[in-house]
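ok, trying the design again with the full structure, not the truncated one.
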């Protein structure tokens, strides 16, 4: 036995250089092991033989029948010719049709010889027929009997004649060589979890003999993926906590205490107090803080951010807060300035719009220490921005920044210790995602709304109820309130969506002629967009017609109504984010989800989740289960360092927890993975790290 799992596919029988290059380009598959880990997405059950007499309905998908051809007949001439045959399984007759390779097929198959046909049969004029079936000889020992694997393929591969059956053939060549495959999971874990070996699991995934073997194999390979993911995250976190020193904020002084006594506008919630205690522990530990602060829109994250900044100031350090848009940075600045100015704190705003002279003044004051807090957009990470001593960097809605951009904040201290990092997000993150996407960060959650905030009433309404919806909107506007009306803007339907938005804008202006209506969408120039948003934020406009650009945006406590058009086209987490734009004042707020009357059952169920809860974490868990993690991972962090091939964060939470526990136990026993039992584990971990850029390293 030899380990040729890393053998290039060129040398596997039947593949060769051209196909190997195509597989690499289309699937990222280069070696024998890569091909073994290109997992099936589905299985066709080839264990059952169905009698033609038992066919029912109009179509029978993926049926297998055993019988004989009793006649062949060529119909038509040239390119329009086809070959038909009558096939009998002893219970009834079936017509078989071929449009291609007619001469070859007529030569291959004989009358009255037993064959197995596999394909989809359709009823036509009360007769069953099947087009281009797969045909096998019953006594031939082939991998096609039993469960047939169906693989993810691309159009280019299909055009090159590479289908699931051919992939199975190549995989069977690899497996039949009986090569040695080193075990990468420690043997004590394999025994404890009762997993099959790696080689056995890979064989059973591609060629399962029964459902039980398939399920055990899939569970083992899912576990393996998640185990190495967690091993990587935990090992990095432990190393960082040991090696990465941080400034110690030992004092709680005048800035913090004066603010708490004099300027705090309302009593902190218990959740806010708990989070501040957690952060204080971090910044006094001697290690660099890397903490994620989660909290729904309006839960009081900005207040926590300010109080942590005041702790930095009490210890002689500067602090910065970076926001993804100018309008959000402006809003943070105004809020913080109003609160902090009572305590004699110097604070400034730096964005792309800041004038040159003012920018130069800000640069000077940051460098000499006269400026204590700076709020800004990505302008903060430009090389010209330098600090005297940056002790704390707070990043709001960090998934909207590129990871390399964020890393620049670490380098603002001229080779001194890196600043403490607090990452804030209003996007509720399900537990499984938090354990992976942000697995190397400590997590704090504000799970309580400030006193006086009322839950937002959410209802689902249909097109035929539009008049009632506009009537209720009119009542809110008459009270002096403001409203958002949101339209989808999806890239595939961009022209249609923009047309709908513009038509909607005109309709709203006609329906509410006594009110000023502003409009915002992502295709506008930034200056125009900011001006329109400002009209609404300042109260000059009563209604804002917009796309999802307002998802992370202005704080308008006077806005009490949110109407979301074509709500069926949005994901749950996105709907929740949009809903969070209202409910920011003391008045009762409403979110109205507008939908077509005819929608799929699953879509209706999805929208009803929104009407039944305002808890962002419940919504996020439901979204993850319904849509899978793809979209969420994409919005959580640009450049995630893992690519799950078989495990799913949406459905494999239990396996993830077990894998995390086992990974922690492994590193507690052997932090450097130097024991004999961990040699292959360490090799595999290094191999997986070499294959990806690990952006989890950058907070």
């Amino acid at each position: 036995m030899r380990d040729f799992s890393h053998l290039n596919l060129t040398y596997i029988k039947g593949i060769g250089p051209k196909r190997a290059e195509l597989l690499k380009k289309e699937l990222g598959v280069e070696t024998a092991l890569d091909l073994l880990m290109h997992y099936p997405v589905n299985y066709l059950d080839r264990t059952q033989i169905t009698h033609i007499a038992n066919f029912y309905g109009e179509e029978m998908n993926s049926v297998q029948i055993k019988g004989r051809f009793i006649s062949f007949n060529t119909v038509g001439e040239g390119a329009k010719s086809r070959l038909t045959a009558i096939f009998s399984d002893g219970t009834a007759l079936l017509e078989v049709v071929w449009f291609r390779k007619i001469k070859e097929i007529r030569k291959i198959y004989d009358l009255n010889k037993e064959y197995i046909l596999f394909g989809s049969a359709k009823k036509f004029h009360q007769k069953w027929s099947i087009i281009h079936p797969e045909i096998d000889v019953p006594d031939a020992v082939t991998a096609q009997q039993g469960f047939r694997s169906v693989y993810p393929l691309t159009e280019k591969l299909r055009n090159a004649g590479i289908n699931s059956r051919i992939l199975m053939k190549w995989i069977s060549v690899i497996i039949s060589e009986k090569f040695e495959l080193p075990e990468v999971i420690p043997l004590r874990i394999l025994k404890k979890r009762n997993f099959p070996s790696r080689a056995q699991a890979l064989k059973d995934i591609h060629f399962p003999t029964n459902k039980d073997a398939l399920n055990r194999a899939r569970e083992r390979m899912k576990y393996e993926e998640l185990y190495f993911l967690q091993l990587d995250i935990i090992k990095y976190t432990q190393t960082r906590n040991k090696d990465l020193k941080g400034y110690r904020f030992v004092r709680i002084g005048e800035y913090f205490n004066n603010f708490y006594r004099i300027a705090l506008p309302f009593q902190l919630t218990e959740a806010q107090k708990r989070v501040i205690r957690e952060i204080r522990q971090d910044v006094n530990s001697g290690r660099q803080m890397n903490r994620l602060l989660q909290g729904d829109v309006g839960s009081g994250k900005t207040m926590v951010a300010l109080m942590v900044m005041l702790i930095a100031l009490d210890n002689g350090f500067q602090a910065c807060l970076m926001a993804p848009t100018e309008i959000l940075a402006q809003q943070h600045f105004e809020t913080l300035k109003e609160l902090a100015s009572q305590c004699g704190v110097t604070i400034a705003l730096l964005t792309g719009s800041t004038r040159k002279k003012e920018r130069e003044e800000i640069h000077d004051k940051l460098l000499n220490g006269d400026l204590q807090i700076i709020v800004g957009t990505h302008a903060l990470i430009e090389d010209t921005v330098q600090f005297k001593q940056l002790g704390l960097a707070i990043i709001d809605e960090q998934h909207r920044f590129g990871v390399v951009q964020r890393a620049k904040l670490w380098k603002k201290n001229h080779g001194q210790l890196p600043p403490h990092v607090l990452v804030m997000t209003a996007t509720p993150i399900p537990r499984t995602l938090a354990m992976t996407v942000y697995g190397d960060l400590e997590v704090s959650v504000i799970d309580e709304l400030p006193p006086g905030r009322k839950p937002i009433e959410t209802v689902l309404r249909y097109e035929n109820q539009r008049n009632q919806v506009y009537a209720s909107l009119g009542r809110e506007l008459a009270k002096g309130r403001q409203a958002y009306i949101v339209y989808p803007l999806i890239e595939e339907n961009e022209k249609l969506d923009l047309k709908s938005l513009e038509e909607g804008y005109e309709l709203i202006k006609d329906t509410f002629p006594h009110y000023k209506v502003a409009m915002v969408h992502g295709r506008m120039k930034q200056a125009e967009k900011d001006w329109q948003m400002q009209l609404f934020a300042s109260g000059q406009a009563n209604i804002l017609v917009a796309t999802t650009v307002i998802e992370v945006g202005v704080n308008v406590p006077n806005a009490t109504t949110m109407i979301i058009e074509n709500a069926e086209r949005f994901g749950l987490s996105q709907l929740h984010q949009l809903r969070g734009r209202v409910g920011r004042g003391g008045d009762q707020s409403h979110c109205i989800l507008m939908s077509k009357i005819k929608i799929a059952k699953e879509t209706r169920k999805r929208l009803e989740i929104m009407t039944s809860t305002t808890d962002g974490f419940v919504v996020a868990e439901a979204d993850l289960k319904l849509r899978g993690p793809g979209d969420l991972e994409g919005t959580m962090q640009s450049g995630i360092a893992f690519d799950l091939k078989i495990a799913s964060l949406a459905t494999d939470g239990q396996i993830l927890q077990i894998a995390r526990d086992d990974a922690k136990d492994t590193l507690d026993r052997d932090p450097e993975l130097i024991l004999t039992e961990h040699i292959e584990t360490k090799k595999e971990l290094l191999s997986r790290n070499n294959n990806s850029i690990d952006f989890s390293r950058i907070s």
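Keeping the full-length input from now on. Residues 630-641, 692-699 have pLDDT under 50 and may be disordered.
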